[in-house]
Specification:
Radius of gyration: 23 Å
Order of helices and strands: HHHHHHHHHHHHHHHHHH
Strand content: under 5%
Largest sheet: none
Shape: globular
Number of helices: 18
Number of domains: 1
Distance between the termini: 65 Å
């Protein structure tokens, strides 16, 4: 600190230094990427190794001392995911009775938390989240934000389990928070924006720039759909106990796909950064994971006309998705009032024709 320099000026100078360091980090990384561009979407050199060398590489990938907790947690998640995927198709009833319905998504949350405490060195001030990039790594706000999506995914996994459903019904306020106001709670997390990824050109090589622009727009469109019709809609339908056991079966397959798109997708970025897979292949795998959720909806598409009231309420949410936060909160309060009054059969007479009574014992 210079003699006589006010603390506020010192703080500002340190802030400017921190931003400059982050920018230098990305610029250096971009220079390396330009000098040695990512490989094409073909198996990297590691895949041509002998089985022994491949085993040694995997051992290092998951058990190296650096980032050990994060690596091992990731391995535990991958093993559980493989078990859940296989068990779902082999014996669905066994899958539902297994601890995987809560341990897999819970491990996803834990993995996201270990990432928060592991990758503190990542850029913190850059606007581009870095996921849709073949030059940059992900920035730190993106890592932190991912824990929110892992958390709401955990909620939906356990909310569709009968044991946890009955338990959460007794909590009332806790249930209300996750069913109706998850994106109000999201204000506690940093928020990255697709727009920043779309506007950023420095993070993309010339040959992949147009590809990533299309990828971002497709992913953004899906995100809006998923927010309202995989998130809100399925929460509302479960809250009113309108989902049949057969529909629940297909919804759990949707949750398995969502688990890949939320947690394993971040691992794909690591593989891309290590040049084990190309940037386009990385995105195609990610896109296949989240688009595969439509496979589940194909079998339960009648859930929309049978719950036309909820379908229209979610459509209203889509309509105000890009409005100010104030309007979003007000709309959710309105939806909350309508649906809660329907569950407890206290809706005004004018609404009872619009919102049929929920199916099942409440």
């Amino acid at each position: 600190m210079l003699a006589g320099e006010p603390k506020s000026e010192l703080h500002q100078r340190n802030k400017r230094k921190e931003i400059t360091e982050d920018e230098d980090y990305l610029e250096n990384e971009a220079e390396i990427a330009e000098a040695k561009p990512p490989q094409k979407d073909s198996p990297a050199k590691i895949w041509s190794y002998t089985p022994f060398r491949q085993a040694a590489f995997l051992a290092h990938l998951f058990f190296a001392p650096k980032f050990f907790v994060h690596r091992v947690t990731g391995l535990i998640y991958l093993l559980q995911y493989a078990a859940a995927f296989a068990l779902y198709f082999y014996d669905y009833d066994m899958f539902r009775a297994s601890p995987l319905v809560w341990s897999l998504p819970l491990t996803g949350v834990i993995q996201s938390i270990t990432a928060i405490y592991t990758f503190t060195f990542l850029p913190k001030k850059t606007k581009d989240p870095g996921y849709f990039s073949d030059k940059y790594t992900m920035n730190y706000p993106f890592i932190v934000e991912n824990s929110f999506f892992a958390l709401i995914l955990l909620w939906q996994w356990v909310y569709y389990d009968d044991f946890f459903y009955e338990m959460f019904k007794e909590t009332v306020v806790f249930e209300w928070a996750f069913v109706f106001f998850p994106y109000v709670m999201r204000q506690a997390w940093p928020q990255t924006r697709f727009r920043d990824s779309l506007e950023s050109t420095n993070g993309k090589t010339q040959k992949n720039r147009f590809f990533y622009q299309i990828a971002i727009m497709v992913t953004k469109a899906f995100y809006i759909w998923a927010k309202h019709y995989i998130g809100y809609f399925l929460n509302y339908a479960r809250y009113l106990n309108r989902i049949s056991p057969e529909q629940t079966k297909h919804i759990y397959l949707m949750e398995i796909s969502s688990a890949f798109a939320t947690t394993i997708a971040v691992f794909l970025h690591t593989l891309k950064f290590r040049k084990m897979i190309g940037p386009r292949l990385s995105f195609f795998i990610y896109a296949f994971a989240y688009l595969s959720t439509f496979y589940s909806y194909y079998f339960i598409f009648d859930v929309f006309p049978k719950n036309l009231d909820l379908t229209l309420l979610c459509l209203g949410g889509v309509a105000i998705n890009f409005a100010s936060r104030k309007w979003h909160v007000l709309y959710q309060v309105m939806v909350f009032s309508i649906i809660v009054s329907s569950r407890y059969n206290i809706a005004p007479e004018a609404l009872k024709g619009f919102l049929p009574l929920p199916v099942g014992n409440q």
